[in-house]
Amino acid sequence: MTRTALVTGATGLLGRAVLNTFSRASGWTAVGTGLTRAEPPQYRKLDLLDEKAVEACLAEVNSKSGAANRSPDSCASSPSLARALNATSTLHLSTLCSRFSILLICISTDYVFPGPPGAAPYTSSSAPSPTNIYGETKLEGEQAVLSTTNGGVVLRVPVLYGRCEPKDNWKESAVNCLVDAVYKAQEPSSKASPVKMDDWAQRYPTATADVGRVCRDVAEKYLSSTAASAEEMPRILQFSAEEQMTKYRMCEVLAEILGLPLEGGMVANKEGNDPRAEVQRPYDTHLSTRELKGIGVDVSCMPFKDWWRRELGAYRK
Fold first, then answer.
1. Which pick of 155, 211, 310, 312 has the fewest CB atoms within 10 Å?
2. Nearest Cα to 137, choosing from 95, 213, 79?
3. Are 235 and 294 in contact, with CB atoms under 8 Å apart?
């Protein structure tokens, strides 16, 4: 039997990786949707805030993954839009998925946790307490899924990196954009005024391809389970790489691969959050992958340096 995976936000960084994984998987047909960058026939144009259009799409296709506003800064500047996309549209999607008996996999974030020093790692049962609008609206989306769907699953992930489109559009990811920061550190102006890079918050950068694989494995596990066993399956799952790095450490790795120096052009900023800043970021929100391991899902990850060595090979000077 061939199953169908409908991937919303398929033109984005994570959505493309999820769509690619399902497209290549045996026994699956994959359909991707997007909005501003969706070009038919490769992608189906769909506005997640248009409830009637979403209902028609789900009724026609049947199965799904997740789109969201993933930027903490843009969420802070446009909280109403962030809530509409991360929470309100998710509530509508989850209600429809319940009606059509569709397995919903909702992508969430480690930012639902406060992350003070010493609190991590967080399990799926740890109490959420987000510190910014992004985390708040993603938590509201989680609550919508858990309250309205039969078998809907929340999958929390940390900061992501992956193949951008176009290839050098590094701004798609908070990790990929560090390549531009490394090049910025080479400019003469940076010698007089070095790039300040965060060396405080602990991150666990995870490749989108690995998340795509986990989404496929989760879908297959949950759709293959019997009704009785499905009731016992966890509703909240978490996936994360285990390599612990600050943004400054990531820049060091990228600079090494590119054969570029950072000394003099970039300085490590260990000050932490500016209490006056609108967006307060957690110190450490490391996610435990215990629930995924418990259901037999592979949680291995591509090493950070190995992925970037392959990706940046053509850029090295």
1. 310
2. 79
3. no
For residue range 243-299, what is the model confidence (pLDDT) as tens digits? 999 999 999 999 999 999 999 999 999 999 887 777 778 999 999 999 999 999 999
By the 10 Å C-beta count (0-12 exposed, 13-18 middle, 19+ buried), 255 is classed as: buried
Q: Which of 253, 275, 75 is nearest to 175 (CA)?
A: 253
Rounded to whole angstroms, how far apart are CA atoms 240 and 110? 9
| Whether the bond into 166 is cis, omega within 30 of 0 | yes
* Burial class, 215, CB count within 10 angstroms (exposed 0-12 / middle 13-18 / buried 19+): buried
The token pair at 267 is 């300085």
| Annotation says 134 is catalytic | yes
Cis amide leading into 121 (omega within 30): yes
- DSSP state, 161? E
- Which two three-digit tokens encode residue 11? 């033109």
φ/ψ region of 62 (left if φ > 0, alpha if ψ in -120 to 50, else beta) reads left
Weakest-pLDDT range from 86-90, 92-96, 217-221: 86-90
pTM for the whole thing? Answer: 0.91
- For 68, 74, 237, 242, the CA distances from 297, given in Å and listed in that order, are 24, 33, 11, 16
